[in-house]
UniProtKB/TrEMBL annotation, chain A:
The keyword rRNA-binding does not apply. It is found in: Membrane. GO terms for biological process: spore germination. This is Ger(X)C family spore germination protein. It comes from the Bacteria. Residues 1-20 form the signal peptide. GO terms for cellular component: membrane. Gene3D superfamilies: Nutrient germinant receptor protein C, domain 1 (6.20.190.10), Nutrient germinant receptor protein C, domain 3 (3.30.300.210). Its main location: membrane. Residues 21-195 form the Spore germination protein N-terminal domain. Belongs to the GerABKC lipoprotein family.
TrEMBL record, chain B:
It comes from the Bacteria. It holds the Pfam family Spore_permease. It comes from Bacillus yapensis. One of its GO terms (biological process) is spore germination. It is found in: Membrane. The chain crosses the membrane at residues 12-33, 39-60, 80-98, 118-135, 147-168, 188-210, 222-244, 272-293, 305-325, 337-360. It is a multi-pass membrane protein. Keywords: Germination, Membrane, Transmembrane, Transmembrane helix, Transport. The keyword Transport applies. Belongs to the amino acid-polyamine-organocation (APC) superfamily. Spore germination protein (SGP) (TC 2.A.3.9) family. InterPro entries: Spore_GerAB (IPR004761). One of its GO terms (cellular component) is membrane. Its main location: membrane. This is Spore gernimation protein KC.
Amino acid sequence: MKKRLLLLLCAATVILTGCWDSIELNDIAIVTGMAIDPGKDKKYQLTVGYVNPAQYSKQNPAQGAPVSIMTLEGNSLPEISAKMNVGVSRRLIFSHTRALYINETVAKDNGVSHFLDSLERSPQFRNDFNILITKNHTARDFAMINDPVERVPSLKVQKSIKTLLKSWGGDPRVRLTDFIDAIIAEGRSPVASTVVIEGDPKKGQNAESNMEVKAPAKIMLDGLAVFKKDKLIGYLSLDDTRNYLWTQKLESTMISIPCEEDQDDENPLYFDIVITNNKSEMRTEYKGNQPQLKVNIFSEASINSMQCQKDLSKIATFTELEKKSDKQIKNMITETIEKVQKDYGVDIFGFGEALNRQHYKKAKKVLPYWNEEFARADVEVDVRIALRRSGTRSKSFISDLPKKDAED
Amino acid sequence: MSKKLVENISLWQLAVLMFTFEIGSVAVVGVGTDTKQDAWIAVGVATVLGAGLVWFYVYLLQQLPGRNLFEMITFCFGKWLGKIIGLLYVYYFLYISARVLRDFCELITSVIFESTPIEVISITMVGICAYMLYLGLEVFGRTGEVFIPYVFTFIILIGLAILFSGEFELKNLLPILGDGFGPILKHVFPRLLTFPFGELVTFMVIIPYVSHFAKAAKVSVFTVLVSGFIIIYGTLIEIASLGARQMERTVFPLLSAAREISLLEFIERVDLIIVFVVMFGIITKVSVFLYGGLKGLEHIMNVPYRYMVFPISMIIGYIAIQISANNAEHIEEGIRFIPLYMHIPFQIIFPILMAPLLIWKVKKQKRRSDANGSR
């Protein structure tokens, strides 16, 4: 009996000592950002930014940089990241990656699919990081810009995108799987956010820059990168990005609309509406041989500011303002769609997928050359804004000011 | 002849085992991915057909109450031919048991324990199954009973969590039946009907030991319908959250879908819950197949199956690793060869061939006993 027990204990020491794959916490380095640049000798240059944990100790935070970076060249991401330990002491853990910066040159020349596959295949990467195309500076610079509030640059970017989506909506809300799905989809082309650095990236790298009130360098969201299959072909502005998002899934936004259509340029007057609830639906139809793209938008909104002299306690005013907003937003969105049609000729909106859902038989025929069909299609945007309320005041005090006409 | 222990499980335990058996493998590899966004319709069609198939199995068992598949085969074909056919079934059950185990090992080694040798996972898993079967069918049934609430709630919860994290896009289900019923039927037969529903043929070894045998038919059919419903639910989740294109490309769709969950930025990375469901489903499935094989050996060799539990299960653990050199081979075999050369003969053709013989023999026996009684 005793012998048996001893044997059991021996066996237990082997079995119960834990997982095969366990790594101690002080042996890992958590990667928060990855940046991909074109390599000099090899295909890519990969930069990883990993957190310096001593910076986050509550009792006595160490003075120093919140993240460290390491750059290497190689032909594939897994190869480079496995080799990173030539300069990094700890094992790199990628499951908390927050941002993937891709240099625009890489996206333009090589296409992105070669390294996206390795990200999708690896069980380490989750589907929750942002794909960002970097403009003007190398992607490496973006992994290094300090932020006084969030400290870790990639965390800052992700948080800023998340917040922007709630307040204004300037990010296409694209994750890795959506992006890959759009590459292979026949009725949709991929998009990604773009970022730029405002200021001097050299100064922004220094941890001391966190001491300054006005940060010497800042990462800013800049709009949209348009792809054809997996190659970057152009950019859209932030405003276009919001309009793009409006056709997809807009959470909330604030928009200023001119009070009169032909106002004097010296002192234009605007009112602001905040969109609180938004529903958009896309329909693609064929009239004979001509494709028709339709977007129906219904948004609930409330008035947030008023520069013109309108009496907001009257129904008529609400109806008038609703009509003005309808028209303004309709024009904006139509303009964006037509711009994409004319400049890039790729369907980033997913009208082709809508056709596939709505008219499967027709879609089967035209989807193989859908982008040409998209480029020549008629666009019809139908916007219906429902103004619900006007904040805590009904009439604006402005409407009690003596009117201009009365002054004469 | 050696003394046989007669063990009984309740109807509820039978239902639990069938249910976990059905959803186990499906939760690992996903079903109907070839039919794209119509996978759930295909599963629905297969469920109805599968329920019919299970009713047929129980109908066969009802002809000879209290006897399992192997005893039935001997009854129909005589001692020697019966033994040969019985051995073929044993081979089938044990092989499928190893395949199911391999499914799970692939999941664990490619998603969670990347550097753990596959042998360790295989042996520990089959060790649990072996221990459970060594303790007997009753213990197996009770184990199922203990875990079923978790399995059930977890699956439902995962679906709700995906729904509430906003990843659930009903748009992904469109167009419904874009290419008509043709591709669906092609996929249902043979693939979907045989896996996961036809595999219930193994339960022909277990159902005779249910205490209220008279109600077994109703309960089995009902269980198949319920589990079919849950599989449809799971498939809908997969399609709606991943989209048809991505679902086709993922090796483990339900797990990938669970990875999309992010509730209130607080409940995240809950894919381990799916691993739990899968793990329990796999334990059940491996055990049921293993039990089928062992019972067959017991019948053929006249040795209580408990003597063989550990050696056979270790062999299974070994075969699971040896059956294929890599994941691609494993999957391609499962798609192209197994349904055609193993599932269809053993699940459909053979029982159908046996049915008239069985009915005729039972009638003959009855007539003889009636004649004996009247004499």
